[in-house]
Amino acid sequence: MSELRFNPISKEWVIIATDRAKRPRDFIKTKEKKILPEYKKECPFCPGNENQTPEETFRISDNTAWKVRSVFNLYGALSPQGGRVRTNDGLYRTMSGFGNHEVIIEHPKHNTTIPLMQDAEVADIIRTYKQRYSAIQQNRGIEAIIIFKNHGPNAGTSLEHPHSQLIATPIVSPQSRSRIEQAVNYFDVTGDCLFCQTLAEELKLKKRIVSESENFVSFMPYAGASPFQAWIFPRRHMASFDQINETEVIDLAKNLKCILSKLYYGLDNPDYNYTIRSIPVTEEGKEYFHWYLSIIPRISQPAGFELGSGMFINTSLPEESAEFLRQVKC
Amino acid sequence: MSELRFNPISKEWVIIATDRAKRPRDFIKTKEKKILPEYKKECPFCPGNENQTPEETFRISDNTAWKVRSVFNLYGALSPQGGRVRTNDGLYRTMSGFGNHEVIIEHPKHNTTIPLMQDAEVADIIRTYKQRYSAIQQNRGIEAIIIFKNHGPNAGTSLEHPHSQLIATPIVSPQSRSRIEQAVNYFDVTGDCLFCQTLAEELKLKKRIVSESENFVSFMPYAGASPFQAWIFPRRHMASFDQINETEVIDLAKNLKCILSKLYYGLDNPDYNYTIRSIPVTEEGKEYFHWYLSIIPRISQPAGFELGSGMFINTSLPEESAEFLRQVKC
User: Using a CB-CB distance cutoff of 8 angstroms, which residues of chain A are in contact with residue B314?
Assistant: First the structure.
């Protein structure tokens, strides 16, 4: 018989279909290997084509060349021009598309990806995330900053050159408010951080841990909504990604590379998204929240049931997936 | 500049990327046409293979053969055996996989789909939905019933034979509770039904209406979360799908066939999901809710931003999509 599990952080119910659970190896979808060149003349993110991207907002470079760049998105979903203008018309509410949308070009090489990079190169990506987060949150009217990565077509990208994105929104989304409400309720009742308690519980049980280091722990959530969903939690209690220090930047890079490598080698380079879940900038410093990074391999397709109910069916067991990934090198 | 729109029914913000909005024709993805046979010997849903499906729960037939059948799902996500058993272990809550999961085999022919069926055949599908909904809601411990359809691989199905599904859950999902809360708040403040008011507004504005009949109206929501998302609202105020009468069954069939035909001919048979959003069975009869059917073509891919924020980016304008579909035959 299957079981339902409740995720106290996301406030979502998941049906873990244990009866028809697939084995971890069943999720390997061997794709046709596309051999990419290290440099592609027509790629706007490749070195030499810097004038094809919109304005650069930040770069990390050594003496000779850039290592990571952030630029405005050519087709930004939101724009820093203008301000927050709201209009209400009867039932409907509209807001001007104020905000920010940047692209972080992760590496000069067209054909690399985090598992193939040096640790120090991944640290430069995280450093760029932090610099952009800290700079953009200064802007009046920005309420939340979402850093995310789309890897592969099933994860919503068609651009090959390795890149992440940052979108700053002029509102706190109802999803974010709902997660905050969960954390506040737990904090009010127990006096503890829901995330610190989750981490303590997982470290005690051990069965869903994938890897750990001095400052971070990677594990599969008890009620993972889809196969191989993984979380990286900082051990130190901090509400905002902006609070990460330089030691933690270097250590997060190692952890991120490690778990993405385990997916890369263990599941043959699956498509995935990851996102950093930080407190809204207007709530910064609150004690009840704790930022983390969530990785969602796109190896199953949410369908009508998920859309109709907001619940999920997961055909893998988080405990088995964690056991499988623990065995894979990183 | 793009704009943000708020959906008062789903409580979701959508970025309508008007700057980079695609034209309706840009969403046509011509696929390789797969010629399917009318009958496939190895298909468990084809006539003659009835003994390959689990127990039948209902059928509509004429003198010679069945027209629609419902059967238990061979790999049911939830099962009517046992009951609702909850266990709490520290932070985590689990429930036994009690519920129901049925498949509605829509037609004897392997290679048909709603746009190609007769109106009377589609009415038999809706009649089956209603019969199963009404029967299953009698079971103690069932709290919500989700009827849905997955059409095509991007919508999460690999089975070719036309079918829908029904999952009955032992809980009301937090997503459903959140929508109810929106409806209750509106009702408490205004004394009106949020859905009736939305319908009145759309009928007044006309620009997002796709088609209408005596009992139903098909339109594109003001803050549609993805391209060509469409809603079919009953004009009569009723909270539960269970309240639909025979005249409305026949008329809903026509409306569903009409809008699916417009997608089929206008966008070259896109993959899609649809789901019936009804009040939870334990809330039946409440005045503030109003059931409807939601159709979500799977022609764009939610990515890291959507996962990380719970917001959506829609690269189409609902008004333009509605205008486009109004011109397509049905």
Answer: none
